[in-house]
Amino acid sequence: MQDTRKFINFDEIDENGPQSYHATFEIPVAELERDDEIVGVGPVTIDAQAEKGDSAGMYRVAGTVSFTADFQCARCLEPYPIANDSAFHLTFAPRPEASEENEEIEVGPDELDVEFYSERSIPLKQLAAEQIQLSIPMKPLCDESCLGLCPQCGANRNREACSCEASIDERWGALQDIREQLAKKKNV
Ligand SMILES: [Zn+2]
Ligand SMILES: [Zn+2]
């Protein structure tokens, strides 16, 4: 049977026990945070299992989110493709009565992955979007050795050697000197 559910419904788990979900979404880049570092996202697939947690009102959700995307390199500003499978484990707990939506809630060290809910149904699309955001590196790079843009003329140095090359080489030379000095210090 094709699973067409787009929400995890806690009432359904209370009534029928643990549930499994499989859903695919198109998520526009504009709906994601850090959308300036993502050029495009392919279809996103989420597989999840949800069950009751240890205490009343708590639910555990675990699964994987798979997607392909184009991230923007922080050095050369070119898009580069990635394919990602990320596993997640979340615990949902009822939002404490007194707290406001935007108020910080203190959580213990064991509750770092706790998300507080006020609605008893959780959109699978929201969980998928969270995993995409978490998968974006602090500094996305097309390649560890990406040469980036020339700071003087803006040329992509992975593709072309611009005429500013000499001064760049001097800087690399200076860096090399520092490395050698550091290496000497370590050997003392
Ligand atoms: Zn790059
Ligand atoms: Zn240049």
Count of spatially separate domains: 2
Query: What is the typical, i.e. mean, pLDDT?
Result: 87
Element pattern in H and E: EHEEEEEEEHH
From the N-terminal CA to the C-terminal CA, the straight-line distance is 70 Å
User: What about the largest sheet?
Assistant: 6 strands, mixed
Count of alpha and pi helical runs: 3
Radius of gyration: 23 Å
Q: Poorly predicted ranges (pLDDT <50, ≥5 residues)?
A: none
Main attributes of the structure:
188 residues, alpha+beta, 6-stranded mixed β-sheet, 3 helices, 22% helix, 32% strand, elongated, binds zinc ion
Write the layout of secondary structure elements.
Layout: E1 7-9, H1 10-16, E2 19-25, E3 38-41, E4 44-52, E5 59-72, E6 79-94, E7 114-117, E8 121-123, H2 124-135, H3 165-187
Parallel strand pairs: 6-7
Antiparallel strand pairs: 1-8, 2-4, 3-5, 4-5, 5-6
Summed up, what is this model?
The chain has 188 residues and is an alpha+beta fold. It is 22% helix and 32% strand. It is elongated and about 70 Å long.
Describe the structure in your own words.
By secondary structure, the chain is of the alpha+beta class. The protein has helices at residues 10-16, 124-135, 165-187; strands at 7-9, 19-25, 38-41, 44-52, 59-72, 79-94, 114-117, 121-123. Strands 2, 3, 4, 5, 6 and 7 form a 6-stranded mixed beta sheet that branches. β4 and β5 form a beta hairpin. The longest helix has 23 residues, at 165-187. The chain is elongated. The termini are far apart. One zinc ion binds next to loops. Residues 73, 75-76, 78, 141-142, 146 line the site of one zinc ion.
